[in-house]
Every structure is written in C-alpha cells, then in structure tokens.
Design goal:
The chain has 2 domains: 129 residues, Alpha-Beta Complex (Aspartate Aminotransferase, domain 1), CATH 3.90.1150.10; 242 residues, Aspartate Aminotransferase, domain 2. It has 15 helices and 13 strands. The strands form 3 sheets. A 7-stranded mixed sheet has the order 3-9-8-7-6-4-5, with helices on both faces. Strands 1-2-11 form a 3-stranded mixed sheet. The chain has a 3-stranded antiparallel sheet with strand order 10-13-12, with helices on one face. Helix content is 43%, strand content 15%.
C-alpha cells in the first residue's frame, strides 16, 4: 500500500537533479577540528580561506576562557525568550558594552545578523513608508524588506547619483503619487558587500539621504572588526557617527562567536523589544555566547595588532593574486573574489584547490550571477606568511592547469 502512495515532494528530487546537471549542486564539507587558519575537512588537513573569522577570535584563549567561566556560573542555556524569563545580566552587559563600542545610545542583540535584519525592517516600516535599497544588498535585507508592507525601490549598486534621483522622485511623487509625504524613507545598504568585498560609498549615501530627509540603515556585518577605529565598522571608518540611524552587525564573523545586533537610539531598542518577531519568539543567547562576545570587544580594543595583521595579510594576498594574473574584481577588504566566470570551472577549481590542500569556497548561481562565479577567499589575522605562500602556489598551479591564467 505504501509503495504505491504518491510522493507529493517528488519535485524536490527533480530540482536536485537539475542542480547537479548544471554543476550548481554543492555538498557540505564536514569539519572535525576547531575553526582556524588550518582545519580538518572531510578528514583532510587544509589551509582555510573560507572563514569569516577575520581576527582569529574563535579560538583565542581569552574567548575560550570567558565561555567556560560563563557556563560554570550561569549554565549551558538561558531557558526562554528574553521577554519571558530569558534575559540575563550577561545579555544586558553585552548590549551596554556594544552600545559604547559602536558610539550609539543603545543596542539590542538578536540570534543572528539575518534575524536582526528581518526583525528591524518590518517593525519600523509600513505601507506609508518607502525602502530604498542597494541592488547588491545581503539576502537578509531583501527578506526583511519582503516581510515589510512598505513599497521599495532598488538603486544601482553603490551609485550615489542614482540614489539621489530615486530620493528626488520619491519626494516629488510622495506615497500616493500626488506628493503626500512618506512617513519614513529608509535608505538601506551593506557597509561591506559580502561577495565582492567593496565598501559602500557611505559619505555620499548619508549626504544624499540627509538632503531628502531620509534615514540611513547600514548592515555592517563584514565591516565590524575590520574597518574603523578598533574595528568599530564602516560608520567609524568614515567619521559618520550620529548620522546613521540604524546599524546592524553580527557577532559571528570578526567577533568570532554567534549572533547579531541592532544599534541605534533607545527608542529603537524599546520598540524592537515590543515588536520584533525574531526577538520575541526565539530563545536568547546561551551564557557562553554572551560572555565570549563581551570578551571579543575587549580584545579588539586591547590587541590592535590583530587588525594590523589582518590588513597586512590582505594587502599581500591581493597583490600576489593580481600578479599571478587572476581577476580579483573591485575588492577593498579581506574578502577577495577570484572571478572565474562559469560555474563548472569554478567548482572544478575549488575541488582542485582542495586536493592541493587549500579550502576556497566556490560561489555560484543563484548567490551570484551565472557569469560571475568565483572562489571567495578571506584571509585572516591568524594566517602566517608560510600559509599564504602555500595557498598562492596552489592557486598558481590550478590556475595554469585549468587555463584560467597564462601558463
């Protein structure tokens, strides 16, 4: 009887087969070691160029000690969502320290950067508002906009003139086409774009927004711990403190742990506590996570040599890839895409790198356009010169073998 029953999910097998046929299917590699510059993946030791752990904090001795001490004092979990019984002194302390670090009035933490974006955007925008978004913004921003009832307009990537034109038209036509003003016009952009590694032209974006009475929201996930004084992010990098209404960040990249946060005014924090669905319906961070995140902030301030090393490695790695003849696009940050074009070549390149002892993730459609497939690399402060030399030799060998660079 069961054998003849139709499978209503049979279409999934067809979609998976189509992905494999188009060389777009990617299996998960399994790590059996701690995160770091060298890891054990699928039982093989390789140099990792695929981690967002920019400063190497995930395995920093101070971080591990803070997490262990928090577990011993507060236990393994927080027990509930924060509005019920899950707010601990550790959560309050982390948010206070993050607010001081980011030079904002207040901070509210979320379970991830993704939930921070999908939490804040629907709360502060509605039918009488307008969201103006960079075309290459992160998927979490796109999903946050989809959850909002506000109409949205997309402007050409990092094009301040295009943004100004959108804002001018919005002010002239209004929310009803007759000039009735929007309650809020929210300009949203990444600070650093996660696929190409370029930095948003924030001074121009903020100037344009202010000229037309709009507010600015910046997702600083890949700028936190990388740009600005002590890694405070892109707003600090450009001296824009006090001019950006909402900052979103993650605690799972340069901070080295897990989570996200929204930084802004006290009123913004208060309304998110009342209405942000990811905050209201998800259990709060375990004590170990909150304690390790607090320690990460202190490390970024007290050990500036980590950021210095990150940038020294970045400059060296980019220069050598370019010298070898690779197209590394317009990256300005430790995110360095090696642009290869088609998906099949990119996946083969990634597989061959792995055989050569280097883990470089292939990024293909739909994450990027079909003709913009790339190996997305990130160097960290934990990479040594010897590791980078070995990785570069592997890129050279595979690039010549596959005809990507001249032999």
């Amino acid at each position: 009887m069961n054998a003849s029953r139709p499978n209503p999910l049979a279409f999934i097998d067809e979609e998976l087969a189509a992905l494999r046929e188009r060389h777009l299917y990617r299996p998960l590699r399994v790590m059996s070691s701690a995160q770091g510059p060298i890891v054990s993946l699928d039982d093989r030791r390789v140099i990792s160029l695929s981690s967002n752990d920019y400063l190497g904090l995930s395995h920093h001795p101070r971080m591990k000690r803070a997490a262990i001490e928090a577990v011993e004092q507060f236990g393994a979990g927080s027990g509930a969502v924060r509005t019920i019984a899950g707010t601990m002194t550790l959560h309050q302390a982390l948010e206070a320290e993050l607010a001081e670090f980011k030079h904002t009035e207040a901070v509210l933490t979320f379970q991830s950067g993704f939930t921070a974006n999908t939490g804040v955007i629907p709360v502060i925008t509605g039918e009488t508002d307008l969201i103006v978004s960079d075309e290459l913004n992160h998927a979490s921003i796109i999903d946050g906009m989809r959850l909002s009832k506000a109409p949205r307009v997309v402007f050409a990537h990092a094009d301040v003139d295009a943004l100004r034109e959108v804002l001018r038209q919005a002010r002239e036509t209004g929310r009803d086409g007759q000039g009735a003003p929007h309650r809020l016009i929210l300009v949203v952009t990444d600070g650093v774009f996660s696929m190409d590694g370029d930095i948003a032209p924030l001074p121009g974006i903020v100037d344009a927004a202010e000229a037309f009475g709009a507010a600015v929201m910046v997702d600083d996930a890949h700028a936190s711990g990388v740009l600005g004084k002590d890694g405070r992010g892109s707003i600090s990098q450009f001296g824009l403190e006090g001019r950006v209404a909402i900052q979103v960040g993650t605690l799972s990249k340069a901070v080295g742990v897990l989570g996200g946060y929204v930084a802004g005014s006290r009123a913004l924090r208060d309304i998110l506590i009342q209405r942000a669905r990811p905050f209201l319906f998800s259990t709060s961070h375990p004590p170990a996570v909150a304690a390790a995140c607090r320690e990460a902030i202190r490390i970024m301030v007290e050990e500036p040599e980590l950021i210095e090393r990150l940038w020294a490695n970045t400059r060296r790695f980019k220069a050598e890839l370019a010298r070898l003849g690779f197209d590394i696009g317009r990256s300005e940050t430790p995110i360095t895409p090696v642009l290869l074009g088609d998906s099949e070549t990119t996946i083969r390149f990634s597989d061959r790198l792995f055989e050569e002892g280097v883990f470089g993730t292939s990024v293909v459609f739909p994450t990027v356009a079909l003709d913009r497939a790339r190996i997305r690399t990130i160097v960290t402060a934990a990479h040594t010169d010897e590791m980078l030399d070995q990785a570069l030799r592997a890129f050279d060998r595979v690039g010549r073998e596959l005809g990507v660079i001249a032999g």
